[in-house]
Design brief:
heterodimer, A: 265 residues, mainly alpha, B: 261 residues, 12 helices, 75% helix, globular
Chain lengths: 265, 261
């Protein structure tokens, strides 16, 4: 198994490396909206002194850390896998003795992550010198706590996206469902604005959903803004949602593959 | 006249294509409404924390959202689908057939795909602009409206020209699938007034990828913030950029040698 993963890594790494120019473009695409939100909110905070207790520096640090956390926890499985069900090229992968999504797809995503994070680093350093944020709230223990949280969140997010992608077994075209899913992330993850500035009802719902684990929770962990009970709660939620998304994915996948009739066969 | 006939033919073909995927069309309209809800919600969140954003009130931001949606509709209804078709035609050589037609190839490449249902998005955008302007409670004169339309048009032409240049680059670098991602990526910067951005970002969205020229600036004209010299300058730039783009397109076409030969 280890050897298989090693080979898969080599193949996928080489594949992603081949598209490094594309990758840089994706990265750019990804960067723009946090930077815009950062600009919008810091400009408001600068005028008013603070927004509900958030100073301009709080916003800057929030979005700067968000850039990293988002890179760690997000995935591109809909783009790398959705079309395979649609055009039938999944057949080749199904005859192999390894799970298409849990091995090849996963390794492919991680290779993509590794490369984008490499690309993000220099950009992040430039942004750091542009904004000169004050990161005094960040502690080593916060980062140490955030890393396992982000790994859990990545797997939860990956399984959920993989399950949604697998809905293509029923609907063939799955991009609309994914767009809806993406809107949920936008609303409940804290990507637009720190969740505490969202309407009360959104905050209350977000607490129980997995989306805040992708962004808001790790960012606040790194920034050292959470009490130990909140940290505990976050971890408990992380494990619960990892379990739920695992079961959900398994169920969708198992039933989906049965329905699969290979387009073109 | 011939142009008009061709356009209506393209339109008909695309209506037929859209009708083949009716469910998809309905889902897309619903998603579009969902995004509108999200956009209004995000403005609401911003303005529940402040009265002005870079000197603009919520009415102005709604109008700006309308202008943004106008430009964005052009992108989604024309530019992205045609880019996709264009990139493929370079890869597989079907560009040959486009060039063989006795019509301007730039015109064909621009209009052969139209996402028809997006027309309703244009109506929505105009509603947003009208509502937003009314909410802002400013006295708008006919002259302001006229310069607004003029600048929205010239801004659109500038972005269109940039698009032509970007896809024409594919003639030089065949494997350049991401030719328009940079345009797509920076689109979102059009949602907010460029005046709130830090200088470096303002420079990018005004001069490099001039999204703001098609969004912030027409709205500034509507608010009567621009002098006649500025208006003439933007209109002049749009003519120059269109001319430059067609030059680049023509010299790019000369480099095209088919996919198999």
């Amino acid at each position: 198994m280890l050897l298989i993963i090693k080979r898969l890594w080599q193949v996928n790494w080489a594949e992603q490396w081949q598209y490094r120019a594309n990758l840089l473009m994706y990265l750019l695409y990804w960067l723009v909206s946090p930077i815009i939100y950062l600009a919008v909110w810091t400009s408001i905070a600068n005028v008013k002194g603070d927004v509900n207790g958030f100073t301009a520096n709080d916003f800057t640090t929030y979005y700067m850390v968000l850039l990293i956390a988002d890179q760690f926890t997000s995935n591109i499985v809909i783009h790398t896998f959705g079309y395979k069900i649609q055009d039938g090229s999944l057949s080749n992968e199904l005859v192999r003795p390894i799970h298409p999504l849990l091995t090849n797809g996963l390794v492919n995503n991680i290779a993509f992550k590794a490369l984008t994070i490499m690309g993000l680093l220099p950009i992040w350093i430039i942004l750091f010198f542009l904004y000169k944020p004050d990161f005094s709230g960040v502690s080593l223990s916060g980062i140490a706590l955030a890393i396992p949280a982000m790994i859990l969140a990545f797997f939860t997010g990956y399984l959920l996206s993989a399950a949604i992608t697998s809905l293509a077994f029923w609907t063939t075209r799955v991009y609309s469902i994914h767009e809806f899913y993406y809107a949920l992330i936008l609303l409940f993850s804290g990507q637009f604005v720190p969740l505490t500035l969202m309407p009360k009802i959104v905050q209350d719902i977000a607490q129980y959903l997995p989306f805040q684990l992708l962004i808001y929770y790790p960012v606040q962990l790194i920034l050292g803004k959470l009490s130990s009970t909140q940290i505990m709660q976050g971890y408990v939620m992380s494990f619960i949602w990892l379990g739920i998304s695992w079961l959900f994915f398994q169920w969708v996948w198992r039933n989906g593959v049965k329905r699969y009739s290979a387009v073109g066969a | 006249m011939q142009t008009f006939k061709l356009l209506s033919a393209f339109f008909k073909v695309n209506v037929q294509m859209a009708l083949a995927y009716r469910a998809d069309t309905i889902v897309n309209i619903l998603l579009n409404l969902m995004w509108l809800g999200w956009e209004l919600l995000s403005l609401n969140i911003i303005f529940s924390n402040t009265e002005t954003l870079g000197g603009w009130g919520i009415g102005e931001l709604i109008a700006l959202l309308g202008v943004f949606r106008l430009v964005n509709t052009m992108m989604i209804a024309l530019i992205w689908p045609n880019t996709e078709k264009f990139n493929q035609s370079i890869r597989d050589g079907s560009m040959d057939y486009t060039i063989l037609q006795p019509v301007n190839s730039m015109f064909l490449v621009t209009f052969s795909r139209i996402t028809v249902w997006r027309i309703w998005d244009l109506i929505l955008a105009i509603v947003l602009i009208v509502v937003g302007v009314n909410m802002s409670g400013e006295a708008t004169t006919a002259l302001h409206i006229l310069t607004f339309i003029l600048l929205a048009l010239s801004g659109t032409i500038i972005i269109y020209s940039l698009w032509i240049v970007l896809i024409a680059l594919t003639f030089w670098f065949t494997k350049f699938d991401n030719n328009v991602t940079i345009l797509q990526a920076l689109m979102d910067a059009g949602r907010y007034p460029a005046t709130v951005y830090p200088v470096w970002l303002r420079v990018i969205v005004t001069f490099v990828i001039p999204i703001a020229v098609a969004t912030t600036i027409p709205l500034q004209a509507l608010r009567g913030e621009l002098v006649i010299g500025q208006v003439l300058m933007y209109v002049g730039i749009s003519f120059v950029s269109f001319w430059l783009a067609s030059k680049v397109w023509k010299s790019g076409l000369k480099r095209y040698s088919g996919a198999s030969s």
